[in-house]
Amino acid sequence: MSNWNESVTAQHEQIAEQNDAFRHRQPGGGQGQWVWTSAIDAEGQDFLLACMKAVDAYDDFNQENDPFDTHEMGFMEVAGKKVWWKIDLYDRAYEYGSPDPTSLAETRRVLTILFPSDY
């Protein structure tokens, strides 16, 4: 049983490292895209840029908001408004979940910025 737990933990650590690199637009984050909801877009370009900077700077991961230690979601405040971000892992065609979430070749990330009411 411990081999399985160690394997899952190692996989989650690798995904967290890749997700962080993707958020920071650094090598090792793989391919993907950043998107945001129309409600975020309606707040204007300055708000969107502030959200993007906040996503990049985010480091408030804990057991309550990151139970799998994959750094795939964050909750923050931007200009007095609650904003969430979420990373989803897709296959290369962006149709289904990734067949191998730790493989940068097989995985495409989509980071979505949204308000809680958009969820």
Write up what this structure looks like.
- With about 120 residues, the protein is of the alpha+beta class.
- The chain contains three helices and four strands.
- Strands 1-4-3-2 form a four-stranded mixed sheet.
- A hairpin with a 2-residue loop joins strand 2 and strand 3.
- About 35% of the residues lie in helices and about 25% in strands.
- It is globular.
Layout: helices, strands, pairs:
Layout: H1 2-23, E1 31-36, H2 38-42, H3 45-57, E2 73-78, E3 81-90, E4 108-114
Parallel strand pairs: 1-4
Antiparallel strand pairs: 2-3, 3-4
Q: Tell me roughly what share of residues is in helical segments.
A: 25-40%
Portion of residues in beta strands equals: 15-25%
Global mean pLDDT? 94
**Uncertain regions spanning at least 5 consecutive residues:** none
Shape type: globular
**Care to count the β-strands?**
4
What order do the SSEs take from the amino end to the carboxyl end, as H and E? HEHHEEE
Number of H/I helices = 3
Summing up helix and strand content along with how strands pair, one would put the structural category as: alpha+beta
Q: In whole angstroms, how far apart are the ends?
A: 36 Å
Main sheet strand line-up: 1-4-3-2
In this structure, how is the largest beta sheet organized?
Answer: 4 strands, mixed
Cα radius of gyration in angstroms: 15 Å
Summarize the structure.
The protein is an alpha+beta fold and 119 residues long. Helix content is 34%, strand content 24%.
Provide keyphrases for this structure:
single chain, 119 residues, alpha+beta, 4-stranded mixed beta sheet, 3 helices, 24% strand
